Amino acid sequence: MTADFLFVSDDKYVKNLGICTYSVMHNMCPAVDKVRLFVMDCGITEQNKQKLRHQAARFDNAEMIFYDIDEKLNAVVPKVKTRWHRAIYGRLFLNELPALYSDMDRLIYLDCDLLMDRPVTDLFTVDLSGKCLAAVTDADNSPRKQALGMDPDCNYINSGVLVIDTARWIQLDASRRIIEYINSFPEALLYPDQDAINYVLGHEIVILPPEFNMMWMICKRDIPKMLRRIPDFYYSAEELEYALYNPSIVHFAGHNMWSFDGITPVAAGVFKKYRKLCDWNDCKRQFGSAGEFGRWLLMSVKRTLYGDYKKANI
What we know:
The protein is α/β, with parallel strands linked by helices. The chain contains eleven helices and ten strands.
């Protein structure tokens, strides 16, 4: 079995890409015959690409392939400025990969601000029932559906982890339609690429268990309180509790894992584990503000009180 993964990064986020791809290879290479890591390159220096290739070479059955899409991103030109870097649109050009790799049936897209902590081979065989995507529901499910005018029967998913049927994606002309939506309705988009994926493909999505995209908004000890605040959230308290302590993928979702390595000891322990193992283990912790330092200090106290996640494996 060949496991195909897709990432998008520029040079600013290359150390996130480094630790993320290491976590994928660490877990997937022993579980499958081959791992292919496709990187949509939005401006990574040759020096950093060599470092990424060197890290991949530590695994006998891993291959890292870069695609320069810096110029292609000009096709996505939202009329309203957002706080998001244009690299977020890189995944929308995945339609070019199946044409180059005819053996690619299923592709898993991963944001660079997440870490895999166990093999996800099940995602390559999960039943998509003829649909295009599988993903985990986002905590902003109801407000984003209302804001975008989505069908209430659809679920608004977080696009940090996407299991993609590449043939169905191409059949639906998804890349063109999503880019067209972004450029046509920029004023409606809070999370441009994610909102557009949900709106265009809302009826083409299968919902995954939350452990495949364990986000910070789920990483709360008081799960019942969170569910009261989000009454129409897709998952039960039992499902979230299981995911909290048994995550396959931990998603830092907007938090800089290098300055603030997790909301809970779960996420903190996973980061600590792969930081030690990856080629970016010499990167020093940096804080952008006093508030960021304070949050990290509080996290350190929590780790002391509750213990690191999977201490035996760190």
